[in-house]
Amino acid sequence: MRFLGFCAVLLVGSFFAQEFVPVLMWAYAARLLLVHTVFYCVALAVPFPVMLFFAAIAGFCWDARFHVPVPPLDAITPGLLNSELPFGFSMFLFALLGSVIQGVRPVFRKGRWELPIILVSGCIGLGMLIELLVISFQRGEWLSPAEFWWKLLLTAMFSALLSPFLLLLLSRVANRTRFRLWVEGLQRRQRYDGESL
Amino acid sequence: MSRFNLFFVFAFVGLVVWVTLFSPRLIGNIQEGALVIFRPFMEASDRLEEEVGDLGEEPVTQSEWRERILGVERERDQLRLEVTQLDEILNENNQLRRALQYTERSPISLVAARVVHRKPTVWHHTVLIDKGRSEGIEVDFPVVVPVGEETALVGKVSEVVGEHNAVIILLIDEVCQVSARLDGTQEQGIISGERGAMRLLPSLRLRYLTKESGAYPGMKVYSSGAGELFPPNLLIGEVVQFDVGVIDAEALVIPSVDFSRLKDIFVLLPLKGTEESDDPVEIPTRPLPAPSL
Fold first, then answer.
1. Which of A50, A87, A189 to mutate to test binding with chain B, by most B CBs within 10 Å of its CB?
2. Residue-range domains of chain A with CATH
3. Residue B198: predicted pLDDT
4. Quick check: helix, strand or coil at residue B119?
5. Which H or E run contains A197?
């Protein structure tokens, strides 16, 4: 329970820290998506229902802070563009990609971090790509300039650089708080006690 | 997946559907609340960014500050005189128009605002200003800055977040679309930013021009006033490239405003009626007062 409390504090703290993360215009306006990186790392360590709870909190707070409502356009082009990513879309995205991340929990539990780190940065890129697809669908035009792919790559790379430190922090805190990183599937099939992996 | 997890999935889906059905008013209230919580961090972040940005620059001495203030005061006095003269000319012009039974030009008032946060979101180019509902700012009001002797378009109000804050969506964003015309011609098109706009100075796309429009590099682009959302004759930028397509033509335009250095901006408010007032100032088509230090 103390570990889950720590994860919640880490997630909330990442929102405030995100305000201090600069946007690097020389790097195609890429930046470290701290909240996303923290969430995906936490998603590796917590059970599925808790991940969903965190996805709801993180997604709601992200949209409350960064959602941009699109006003109606100039009357000369009515109806061309009247909707964007809806409020609450980040909740869905966090939960979807958090579920993907949950797939490598057993690997993380074994102490192998290569795949989780790749997947954390991959999910950041995938999240951006999904948002672009939704925006493009709603605007009725697919545009993906080379700059976008660079932005996606660099943003994912920044999170890949940070995630090992976050995973280290989470595993240390899990040990300190005696939190066992359960693997529910294995536990059921093999009567896994949570210790022997 | 266990029944236990399935229950949480259904509960989560229900929650997401409920949130996506929130009314714009409720979303506005939520964002207003979030802004109250995050504002100290946003301000601290901007201060830090400014200080880090100023690290390499020479410190300004007290005498240099004094000189600058004197210079600004001189400029202010000069502008006051010009405003008085222009007001007289405007009155005279309106009288003549009335005499000729033309429609009187509707005055427009300005609200000076300061950019308090300029960090873009992942997909949108927005800035937060320190003026809001209490100053009469509403969604879709145009935002301008002085550039040389002209008034340049910055964007429009995207959202009014509380009594003293509003979000401005910048011209370089794809969703900020403006009807524009090429200087010296009747050619009109729609100008907007590029999706993502991930460069230091992103260019704008002026679309739906006729193939015979004859735009050339260096040609200025102004708002046309069509649609009545943006007033006419606001400077937008300069053409750098002109491409003729199968049906229509498109021009690449470099914006006149340096969006990375926005500090003081002006929101245009339409005045109800035509009675004169001391404050705010009127008529956006003449040069705006220079922003203060």
1. A87
2. 2-68+83-176 (1.10.1760)
3. 59
4. coil
5. none
